[in-house]
Amino acid sequence: MQRNLIIIGASGHAKVIIEIIETLGNYSIIGLIDSFKCKGTRVFGYEILGQDKDIPYLSKTYNVFTGVIAIGDNWTRKNIYKDIKKHLPDFNFISAIHPKSIIDKNVKIGRGAVIMAGAVVNSDAKIGDFCVIHAQASLGHDSKMNNYSSLGSNATVGGNVKIGALSAIALNANVIQGISIGTHCVIGAGALINRKIGGYKMVYGVPGKVIKKISKGETW
């Protein structure tokens, strides 16, 4: 029997997650939550039921206390999670893992994580809560993604790499084995990281160079 589920977010990122949930077939999507689109608008046939602030009311109205945060921005995803847990401590956040991803042995995946089609996670890797691994990205053996971090499409991360909380590895970036990347970092599209990167840095280029310091929640 399918259980009810809501998706928090209604952008392109949410569309990919809708496809994952539909493919898995374990949940019935009741609707979407989005603070920037009009209530009643439909995305892939699912109605936007209200804004983030409406979630406590909507959960009780539709008897749904399970969901996925479909927000691509790491910082925003964290803040939405904290706000929901403040008002609904027992709300259940599930992980959405596409069946066409490849997950090797002994991989640990936290709650609320999203792993898209074609992604590869190698043995003994650890994926924290609310991480996102986009299509065709690869996480090497024994590597660790801390909470709210993300790998963009076609990003390649070698073995024994540590990625700090809320850090984003963008499209086609490459991180060689054994590298540590601090918290709140942005590794730009196509960058090659061959040395340790401290926290709160934006890095671009081949090899990667620090472009500037960044602050918590800074957009890029």
Automatic annotation (TrEMBL):
Keywords: Repeat, Transferase. Coiled coil: none annotated. Residues 4-83 form the PglD N-terminal domain. InterPro entries: AcTrfase_PglD-like, Hexapep_transf_CS, PglD_N, Trans_hexapeptide_repeat, Trimer_LpxA-like_sf. It comes from the Bacteria. It holds the Pfam family PglD_N. PROSITE patterns: HEXAPEP_TRANSFERASES (PS00101). Belongs to the transferase hexapeptide repeat family. This is Acetyltransferase. It comes from Mariniflexile ostreae.
